[in-house]
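Section 3.1: Structural characterization of target chains.
Under the original work plan, the team committed to producing a structural model for every single-chain target entering the pipeline before any wet-lab resources were allocated. The record below documents one such target. The sequence was received from the expression subgroup and is listed exactly as submitted; it comprises 171 residues.
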Amino acid sequence: LALEDKRRNDWSLVPPKARHPSRLFYSAITDFLPQIARYERLFPPEQILILLLHDLQRRPAETYRRTLAFLGLDTSFKPSFKTYNPNREIRLPKVLEFADRHVHPDSAPGRRLKPARRLTYRLLWRLAVRYPQRATMDAHILHELRQQRHGAVELLGEHLNRNLKALWGYG
């Protein structure tokens, strides 16, 4: 965060291996109101649906139905909202590479392992991958971010007619 302004003024401070340097300007990425305004200039309100990740995480079925209704689709279908890709960490990449290449049911060697292939693959996957708890953000950084983004969050909340400050813990 402290480097944002410096990097914006001096691109030599951007790490040379940064694949997408513009993504290092975190404040610009999270400034949603100008992005929404661009869509509102191009499309009529009835063609725009703004969803919050917060809503999708806390009320997935309701948010899903709302999206289907917006798109004019049948809202009666009820999918599973199980999380399939949680935060994961590959701790043994060589084991995972071996499993994908030689044991995965779709690999040539894996097809020869008929009954045991799925079980073997799952066991190797469990050995190679772990699902740690996400670390919480440092309280000082969170406080700084909230101070920095307070005005933008307030404006966005007014625009969406939602109390985002309360929703996102701005107090």
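The chain has a mean pLDDT of 85.
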